[in-house]
Design brief:
Layout: E1 3-5, E2 11-17, H1 22-32, E3 40-43, E4 49-56, E5 59-66, H2 71-74, H3 81-94, E6 102-110, E7 113-122, E8 128-129, H4 130-137, H5 143-165, E9 168-169, E10 178-183, E11 186-191, E12 198-199, H6 206-217, H7 226-239, H8 247-263, H9 270-275
Antiparallel strand pairs: 1-2, 2-6, 3-4, 4-5, 5-7, 6-7, 8-10, 9-12, 10-11
Helix pairs in contact: 5-7, 6-8
């Protein structure tokens, strides 16, 4: 592990690095000190983080800085958000699932308190999150696009089913945290925001399985029909056949939790949900 002193007096501590770190440090330090850099453009992120798409030696990379949300995030004996995100990426990689390749991660500490953290990964060029992918490619309802959409949904159900079968829980499996990139007309699914991703060697607990399935089920847009949801669920069950005897009960729980979750955001009726 190496470290470097920033201009503001904080110390940046490297957790993991691949290749030469100098060129990444220059860009990272400039961004953290609010200095303009011609090779980085800020991109959309959550309220508790800042993110940039940068170019290093012509290679696009993703830089995410984690803000401190409260006293728990400051405690030095607790894993930082950056470290947890890094470990989540590694869990997926080791189990054969896709997440942007990790370049580096680190923490910024001062007086034994964590002041922030960062994660640097590859930028998945040509990818779109699930929402944007559906809006871009499934605007019209031709038979060809309908077939492509339902094949995509089936594949998504299979991938998430395999992930749960492998004992992996994704802490925030919203559609915005799944990137899709077409590779020779074959969609690849990349999981991002892995801060709360965990591995359970005895199998994923039922409540966490239901939480993930509810998160992905809250996707409400004209391109997603009730039939599409059933296609996803059937593909998921095919990867977890031990759940088929209790599939109806599981579906009821997911739809009930979905209703509660959606009611917090938008007026909700089952009739409107079933039509979409």
């Amino acid at each position: 592990m190496g470290s470097v002193r920033l201009k503001n007096g904080c110390k940046l501590i490297w957790i993991k690095k691949n290749g030469s770190d100098g060129i990444y440090l220059d860009t990272l330090i400039s961004l953290l000190n609010n200095e303009k850099t011609v090779n980085a453009v800020q991109v959309q992120s959550s309220n508790n983080s800042m993110a940039w798409k940068a170019s290093i030696s012509g290679e696009p990379i993703f830089i995410k800085f984690f803000n401190i949300r409260g006293i728990r995030d400051k405690l030095f004996f607790r894993k930082s958000r950056a470290r947890r995100a890094m470990e989540g990426n590694i869990i997926l990689y080791e189990k054969g699932f896709l997440s942007p390749d990790l370049i580096a991660a680190g923490e910024i500490k001062k007086c034994c308190f964590i002041r922030g953290g960062f994660l640097i990964t590859e930028w998945i060029e040509g990818s779109l999150d699930v929402y944007k992918y559906f809006k871009t490619f499934f605007k019209s309802g031709t038979s060809e696009k309908l077939l492509k959409k339902r094949n995509l949904i089936k594949m998504a159900g299979q991938v998430i089913g395999k992930m749960h079968k492998a004992g992996i829980f994704h802490g925030d499996l919203r559609p915005g945290n799944i990137l899709i990139r077409d590779d020779e007309n074959r969609p690849l699914f990349y999981f991002i925001d892995n801060e709360r991703t965990k591995y359970f060697h005895k199998g994923i607990p039922s409540r966490l399985r239901e939480k993930n399935l509810t998160q992905i089920n809250t996707m409400v847009m004209p391109q997603i029909t009730f039939t599409d949801r059933m296609i996803f669920f059937k593909a998921y069950l095919d990867e977890n056949p031990e759940l088929k005897p209790v599939s109806e009960e599981l579906a009821r729980k997911i739809f009930k939790k979905t209703k509660i979750k959606l009611q917090r955001k938008i007026p909700f009726t089952w009739e409107g949900y079933a039509k979409n």
